[in-house]
Amino acid sequence: MITAVKEAMGGEPEGEEALDHFQVGSYSPYLFFSSDEWSRFRADTPLTLTLDEVHRLRSIDDPIDLAEVKRIYLSLSRLLSSHVESSQLLFQQRNRFLSTNVTKTPFIIGVAGSVAVGKSTTARVLKELLARWPSSPKVDLVTTDGFLYPNATLVRENRLNRKGFPESYDTGALLRFLSAIKAGQQNVKAPRYSHLTYDVLPNEHMIIDRPDILIFEGINVLQSRDLPRDGKIVPMVSDFFDFSIYIDADESLIHRWYVKRFMKLRQTAFRDPNSYFHRYATISEEEALVIAEDLWANINLKNLRENILPTRPRADLILRKGENHLVEQVALRKL
Asked: Per-residue pLDDT for 17 more than 50?
């Protein structure tokens, strides 16, 4: 059933190519599945989304359709359901062990990956699927964009060209937010971000009030931190996650998707006079292409290589996309 697994005492993978870049000799911590193999795990999980809903949820140039939802996301929804149920059972057992009667805190799912790889679509589709489980859990979605420092701060500190890099985020605010969520606090504020103005919206927040499940999406959510020599507690964002997902693809494909998206945005969102990138809608296509390539090479590619890709091995599940922007292989961390 598994075409690309190397067990410690086993032989070579059967079938075609394995995800060799995830392997560590014969001791990979992951099980590898083709998309067709993965699709079988959906069992009788019902499809609760319509085609129109999928079209509404997907990002620009993302070709996800109902077939992809059935093939990949229904199995993932079923897997996450088992993790949530197991977490709830363990919590009840710990309550009995400690003779306490505290309330279960939200199950947090982290979604990471490069720009233009499809994180937002994955997060939105998962949110809708999970909210439609028979138990009707309350599911919220928060992105890390709102936790970026305002542009004025980044300009003052000469870091605007490092936007999206770890140092451009208010890590303290991120950790305080997740701490409050995990503590079961009511009405926790998450800052809002505008992709139109390319900036944090001052004094605007969304309220997260004790969801059953929180999906937390962002390029650097699996980022680690330097550890102190004195052994003091230094929390990382991923410390608050109960399950983590990394959306992956070849660098060359992400490059192509990024440039294609940039050029398409010139014909859509960038045409809005209020858009931070409106100036790119008025230049020639040749000039825009040069700018897109420069932004990719000097910002997004550097961030991918230095900060995002190195976090991939920390994920519980890796969705590997192919040429057509659809998931071709799935890597699931062994228990």
From this structure: no
